[in-house]
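Schema walkthrough. Field components (list of strings):
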Amino acid sequence: MITPQLVGELLQQVRAQSPLVHNITNFVVMNNTANALLSAGASPVMAHAPEEMEAMAGIASALVLNIGTLSRQWVEGMLIAGKTARKRKIPIVLDPVGAGATTFRTETCHQLIRECHPTVIRGNASEIMALISSDIRTKGVDSTESSDEALQMAKTLARETQAVISISGKTDYITDGTQVICIRNHIPLMPKVTGMGCTASALTGAFAAVSNDALTGAAAAMAIMAVAGEKAASAAKGPGSFQMHFLDALYTLNQDDINQNLKL
Amino acid sequence: MITPQLVGELLQQVRAQSPLVHNITNFVVMNNTANALLSAGASPVMAHAPEEMEAMAGIASALVLNIGTLSRQWVEGMLIAGKTARKRKIPIVLDPVGAGATTFRTETCHQLIRECHPTVIRGNASEIMALISSDIRTKGVDSTESSDEALQMAKTLARETQAVISISGKTDYITDGTQVICIRNHIPLMPKVTGMGCTASALTGAFAAVSNDALTGAAAAMAIMAVAGEKAASAAKGPGSFQMHFLDALYTLNQDDINQNLKL
Amino acid sequence: MITPQLVGELLQQVRAQSPLVHNITNFVVMNNTANALLSAGASPVMAHAPEEMEAMAGIASALVLNIGTLSRQWVEGMLIAGKTARKRKIPIVLDPVGAGATTFRTETCHQLIRECHPTVIRGNASEIMALISSDIRTKGVDSTESSDEALQMAKTLARETQAVISISGKTDYITDGTQVICIRNHIPLMPKVTGMGCTASALTGAFAAVSNDALTGAAAAMAIMAVAGEKAASAAKGPGSFQMHFLDALYTLNQDDINQNLKL
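Field assembly_structure (string):
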């Protein structure tokens, strides 16, 4: 379903088309995710005011909704942007940051799923499981579950929502409810840098914008995260330098890097 | 009262327990402080919506209130989180960023102190002095006073508020109104990076969460800042690389680093 | 009109006076622009609450208004700060981020120009052209036009608004409607890092604060961006390391660097 060659071709497409990715995302990671999109070749815009959501989602190639620092006021903008994106049939990525930590977050995710019909839902294991089962508790924004445990629930969630589900963890799983793609690169430094999951969601938007189907786009984005992560980890001395090397790697990544480092 | 050995033990506790630190903090530093908490071994969450403040402060091990980019709407969330934290007896750290620069900031600090009873108040000299004397003017968010001059007022503030006061400066002073702990590492690059004070407040939350008393926790956090700062400064070529090395240092810091670099 | 010698002297003035620059800016770049101001020797403050705008703009040496993540609520603060700054005759820099992408942004810029009379308007080519012609469409926050094409419209805009117009691009143009200063350093990595334009606007505030006239101040800021950019680019391996080296370069820049690297 996905090969190093295809991942490389999609990266070339992101660089060639430079899709405009409209992000309504959290304050913590805006800078990182904008930089990751730029480094990968896409064009990011961060905007949330209800007054301009139709206009901004109206010129974008993908929309990313991320509830990391959620407030009532921002949900209004997310809903307008989401409905505009849906009407225009551009991909919508939902990152349910902290779902399972508070009822407000879990319920907002359910509302966004119901009203915007995201193309891809990308989160950690706890967050994905919390969208199916109210027994799951997320520790703030950090997962308490492994991605292996989340896979069955992810398949159920995919079938219920018609969305591709992308779970990051030691193994990343991307599923449409039937097919499952695994990315087996495991980079221990990655969860030590804030916003790497959010970065994965932003790149998922960029890759979905240039892919024929959402499953491939979502998987290619996680593959690029993995390969850039491997390169960064090999040069890093800690989370600070990892973050810097990660952006450099996204910018310089080539087919050889993908062939050598991607573990499918 | 504090020794390199104790600082090292508390760092081990942060890494072992990975306390969830709930931050209601400013837009400028959210990324840095989240990364510093992760690098030190803690688990950060940034959340401010009144709708989820009871739930989020309800699962946290410490709460950090930072008024750096204050607005009326956020104070509401701070008050709910603060009262929840107080009820649960988890440590509350207040960072009075820019107190003394505007009446709005100074008065909001007084309200937060009155209604939430912070365990630790950590700021620069001007900010701490402005909480006692309305004659003090802070230059935006930068101190116009030395920490030496602030010490007497800090003792008074500690006795009045029952909080530990932690003043950063050339010498850091941490006092409960009676005892005074000094950290004598002076790192000139530190005030050249935005949000290092805010990072100190976030780490104070993490260390207070694993300490038996607030004075020790607050002092250990400043000790870790100092030691990581020394390591970063020795490798840095300016504020940009300092910031990167600082996170790497927090992540890799060991007992030897503390023994060799901490100046009590 | 501008010489390497004069740029160096103004940099010395920024370092000596450390002007307080009050920024009402976007969430994406707050950290970068605060750090760039600190590295250059200025003192940044980020504040937006209407309740403290008179007080904060009342102690500042320059005001920077940046609409990157605009919302209705923030415009209120911008207007109060802008009017306070105007009354105090301190320089006001407007960065019309994303003007031309949505009507909300373009119209807000017109309102800020009308009511606050910015001293300098600094943007990319699309943004500047969109303030003159409603035919121009900005791709999110990225320019679709070259700065060469924007120059004539910039002159018109300068005459209409009485503001200095500063356009960044392959060549930077700074004009008061009559005189034109060109900075010919072209640094391809610069648009691959988010917020470099916003950083230019923030530094424009700092340099305008220490300059006798706005044209010189605006040009000196772009010159410093260019020279620090050249130094950073020569050391960088991608956008991640560029960003780090850029801050280090701002901090360490001397007259020799300016003499050797500035292309007027």
